[in-house]
Amino acid sequence: MRMQAPILELAGVAHSYGDVTPLADVTLTLGPGELLVITGGSGSGKSTLLGIMGLMEKPDSGRYLLRGKPVGELSDGALARLRNRHFGFVFQQYALIPGLNVWQNVARPLGYAGLNRREQKRRAVELLSELGLAHLAGRRPAQLSGGEQKRVAIARALVNDPAIVLADEPTASLDDINAEAVIRLLKAQAKRLGAALIVVTHDQRVKNHISNHLTIGKA
Ligand code: ADP
Ligand code: MG
Question: Are 149 and 96 a contacting pair, CB within 8 Å?
Fold first, then answer.
């Protein structure tokens, strides 16, 4: 029995690009602290689905409820505020800003929360410390290894205490040790925050750690 109200619910979600229909009928529900792996071959619509869940793209049809509210009824401004305050994104290509150092990158999402610079730095460094990355706080992204950059990207995704964490192929191009570290980090932090964690991946190393799987497209 589900004890808490769902954070997000998708029902019959479909999306096309011209005559390509990567998403035909997606239904899923996730509550606080619940984990889901979305899997499927290349081009099966994984990133499209993540874009829809992350409020970056509107589905052609179907229902998407966030804490029971239909997102289709929200204005662009309301969607942007929700995205900034309640979502954490881990992008496939890290998307760290080269001209900012590590703590400044991690603090970026806090700008929208109206915190002053000193408070932003305090929060960013505190989280970096929890993740064992404090020694990197003053470095530029280019001075980090791929695994370190990925962990910094995860810190940035978590700094605003998101209710929903969306990670697109977070272990791609990482060796086994770094992949393991990244997935443990994501799981532990989702648990700490009570966040719904959605990992889009075809990486068996991730699937071994999360039992709830949804396969989309042609299996
Ligand atoms: P995956 O992440 O599973 O590899 P995507 O969601 O990126 O798949 O893409 C699913 C399908 O939709 C692919 O055939 C891709 O070429 C197509 N597609 C994705 N984004 C666009 C777009 N913006 N315009 C047109 N076609 C797109
Ligand atoms: Mg993709």
Answer: yes
